[in-house]
Each structure stands twice: as structure tokens, then as C-alpha cells.
Amino acid sequence: MKLVSLRKQVFDANLELVRRGLVLYTFGNASGIDRAMGIVLIKPSGIPYENMRPADMVAVDLDGKVVEGKLKPSSDLATHLILYREFPKIGGVVHTHSRCATLWAQAGREIPCFGTTHADYFYGPIPVTSELSPKEIEEDYEANTGHAIVRRLQGIDPLSMPAVLVRNHAPFTWGEDVAEAAYHAVVLEEVAHMALETRSLNPEAQPISRALLDKHYNRKHGHTAYYGQKKR
User: Fold this and answer.
1) How do residues 106-155 score in pLDDT, each as one tens digit?
2) Domain containing 193 — which CATH number?
3) Annotated catalytic residue, options 12, 34, 120, 214
4) pLDDT for 223
5) Average pLDDT, the chain
6) Which of 61, 140, 157, 227 is catalytic?
7) Of 6, 11, 103, 140, which residue is 20 to 30 A from 77 by alpha carbon distance?
8) 198, 205 contact by CB (below 8 A)
């Protein structure tokens, strides 16, 4: 299969999570999709990052059937597949248990947009999913986690809000490719930390104004964006 480039991208994204301190031991996973082929590459389950090679990334179809690789795919595969099926614009998904973002998820609290650092990447507060029912946990837990994310993001462009907190669990992020999904995971952890410190310094702190949110988000991502260099 012509998956060499994507395999390397997914491998690199998984290692980026380690380099940035977002995962411990075998926590977390990153995946990427080749939409034309309908193939997803994802980290294998329970393999220490220091022992992984690009060839260890497991290739599956959108039904979760392994089509290439000898290792078991991540136990979170079903969540990734739901997101790929429901959000056709995304090309990569990342799941971590990064400390600060996970604290907000465990508290069942969305991350307020207190400032422009947050607004540069996420258009508003980072949402939290609803709690899964005992039946949803018992039956198809990982798939139901994906469905909970999709329900929470209903009516929201997933590329304008490329992150969610799964209640009592941890964050998921995504992007147009797997490298961007990992980038968003890094930024999410930073704004989660900043929000915790903001609340600590000033419990009465208020979210950023809508005017400043719009300005900072749109100057990087809007139709008239002017941040950075023009793409050639």
C-alpha cells in the first residue's frame, strides 16, 4: 500500500506528544487518514513510544478492520473512526491525558477563553461532553465516546473548535492532518494551564470579549486572514 508518507507522519505525531510532555508511558495516541484510500493509520495498543517504529503503525479501514500490520490498533480506535466518519474535513486525530486539560475534563468544566492565546486557535470555550450512561460505558464504550463528542459538537465547525474534553476522561484534538492535530493538543494543554492559573489569580476573571475573540481568531483563520505569510 502507498502509505509510507502517512505512516511516517502518524509516527512523528505520536512522538511529538512525547517530546512536548503530553503523554506518559503508553498513554495517548495519534492517527491519520488517507481519505482517497479510506485507510486510517494509528498507534498500536500498549506499545511504549521508545520502542515504536513507523512500520508499527496499524492500518485499518473505516470499519476498523486491520488491513496492514501485525499489531493490535489503539483501544481508542473506535473513537477515532467515529470522528473521521462524522467530520469529513479532518485528517488527523490525537488523544492524550495531558495534565491540565485532563483536570478540566475531570472537573466537567469547559475551558473559558480568557485571552488572545486561546482565541488564536479555538473559537470560544473548549466544550465538555455529557456523561456517558452506564449502558453506553458497558456496550461499545469507545464508539459511544465518539458519539458523545459528535453530539457535543453539533452545529459547530470542527475546524473552528478542534478540541473537546471528554467528561471524566481526557481531551481529544484534531486537524486537517495529523501534525496539526498534535499541534492543537500542545496548544490545548497550554491554554488549559493558563486558564487554571488565571482562575487562581482572579476567581472573578471574565472571558475575552466577543470583539477580541473574533479579531484574533479571524486574523489567523477567517476569510480575510492576514497573519503569517501567503502560501505559494
Assistant:
1) 999 999 999 999 999 999 999 999 999 999 999 999 999 999 999 999 99
2) 3.40.225.10
3) 120
4) 83
5) 95
6) 227
7) 103
8) yes
The tens digit of pLDDT for each residue in 67-112 reads 998 899 999 999 999 999 999 999 999 999 999 999 999 999 999 9
Residue 230: inside a domain, yes or no? no
**Active site annotation includes 227:** yes
Longest dimension (CA), the chain: 55
Evaluate whether residue 228 is within a structural domain. no
Q: Range of 100's domain? A: 4-221
Contacting residues for 9 by C-beta, under 8 A, at least 6 apart: 32, 92, 177, 178, 179
Q: Provide the domain count of the chain.
A: 1
Active site residue 120: yes
Per-residue burial over 129-166, b = 16 or more CB atoms within 10 Å of its CB, e = otherwise: beebeeebeeeeebbbbbbbbbebbeeeebeebbbbbb
